Amino acid sequence: MNRMRELIELLNEASKAYYALDKEIMSNYEYDALYDELVALEKETGIVMSDSPTVNVGYESVDELPKERHEKPMLSLSKTKDREELKSWLGEKEGLLSWKLDGLTIVLTYNEGKLVKAVTRGNGEIGEVITANAKVFKNVPHSIAYKGELIIRGEAVIKYSDFEKINSTIEDVDAKYKNPRNLCSGSVRQLNNEITASRNVYLYAFSLVKADGVDYENSRAKQFEWLKEQGFDVVEYELVDANNILLSIENYSKKIVDYDVPSDGLVLLYDDIAYGDSLGRTAKFPRNAIAFKWQDEIKETTLREIEWSPSRTGLINPVAVFDSVELEGTSVSRASVHNVSIVKSLKLGIGDKITVYKANMIIPQIAENLSQSDTFVIPDRCPCCGDTTVIKQDATAASLYCTNPNCFAKQIKALALYVSRDAMNIDGLSESTLEKFIAKGFVKGFVDIYHLDRYEKQIVEMDGFGQKSYDNILQAIETSRTTNLPRLIYGLGIAGIGVANAKVLCRYYDYEIDRLMNADVDELSEIDGVGPVLANGVFDYFASDEHKQLICDILKELTLEEVKVDRSNDKINGNSFVVTGSLNTYANRDELKALIESLGGKVTGSVTNKTTALINNDITSNSSKNKKAKELGVDIIDEETFNKEFFGK
Predict the structure, then answer these.
(1) Are the C-beta atoms of 530 and 505 separated by less than 8 Å?
(2) Least confident of 119-123, 128-132, 531-535
(3) Residue 602 falls in the annotated catalytic set
(4) Which fold has domain 408-480?
(5) Would you say domain 2-45 falls under CATH 1.10.357.10?
């Protein structure tokens, strides 16, 4: 029982990090091993705890998107890594063998041929409404021929090719996305669907939940064909039986090496609908389908080194270096160990015998430490500057940080972010060029970039440079002097503030930097899409006298474009609103938010005693926002009332 409780805590923590926070604190291999151990113990004892991951599916999300309960629980699938077991499960029946895509599950609802609702899987019981975002997926039809109520489930994914393109535009290493699934999860759940649209999200249908009046001849394959006729892309599948299933699995294993859509295995589903439905379900799994996870190719090797790579934020990332082995057709000698917690849990030591594999046949990972010498000492000095390090524990894992604010690695990364495309956009100042200029003493901070003309002679004479290179850099610097406030705020490298959040902050404070710099945590927390964690980061940054002086010095070098706010509408100017639910006269909530903000109003994510009105077309709902508004005496008005009262139309 003690071990079961320990396993439940570990697995739930890992699931919460993965599904709710888009973080990974243990490998898939380790998770599966612990999960299987828990299943065995539950079978042995006959006891299943109420919080066991074998009966609870996932976690609720942690953002501000509207929540909605699914009509039917969305269950996980039982799984196997044994090909013969998959064949035995199918028996004499026919089945559909398809990819198990690695993205975010979405439920789409159509009425009268129109897409009316999209909801994420969430925790299997309650999901998040992302209808506006689904409408900008690359391949989701807005209208279909079928006019009845259609409900389907599909997987939203970002292809590897698009993932690489998006990451290639991000010059700051710390800001790059870890994998396509994390990028997809964040993209699908954006509060601004313009960002979703830019991410090239695709949806592949894998289950038809409801479409009355259509004859599928009792065949899942016929359902898939019908969905194709309606304009949907369905997950790639093959019709299999006991005679060809092993060959089909082998074909999939060859395809995945170059398959552009992220996949972490296969799904086998009975083609016979009535038979599959007659089998019912367990507390956690439906019995009409089973998941197949790849039997990872595991190789034994020797750990030679753990490299620690400092970053702009001070985080020092561990990377295992080992004797090269062939995995899934490629040579592998390095694997990320992610953080201090994983280094310790693996009980690593230089010279240890370890096994390695490729997660989803793509990403190198350490599977197991056979030696478990536990002799590796976490460095107490930064490998870049030699200053002291500290281990910090957050909600999910312990990580190593450099304590030196002037660490060379921090300077390089911070400056590279500042000159990047989405910040000051100074072409020609690559990370390697900045490294050379810092080493020469030309650049010690942001402001020095604007005075590189002092070193014209030295730069022109440097290897790899010349007069033309120098002139191009100087021209790019001059061009960058005229910019806008969101670019500057992003370029400062405030913890957690990306391009989108920088725009949100600036818009909220009418593009007045003094107001932003003097905002308190409570006020910042009210901003839609910010929340308490980011609010504290922003507040702490501007609370520093050093940072205030830095901004003052930078502003002397720049001309910020003026953004005018029309304050003629007294009913909106200076007032605060909350917008929730779907809209009719506006394209989406963002359009209404932008209108309110352009007139000097504020749009926040939560109802407080400062809220002028909650705009919700479903006035009678028992949503948390409606309840809060009623408690505080805040008016709840629908869209039509808002237009009449505040615009007279």
Answers:
(1) yes
(2) 531-535
(3) no
(4) DNA polymerase; domain 1 (1.10.150)
(5) no
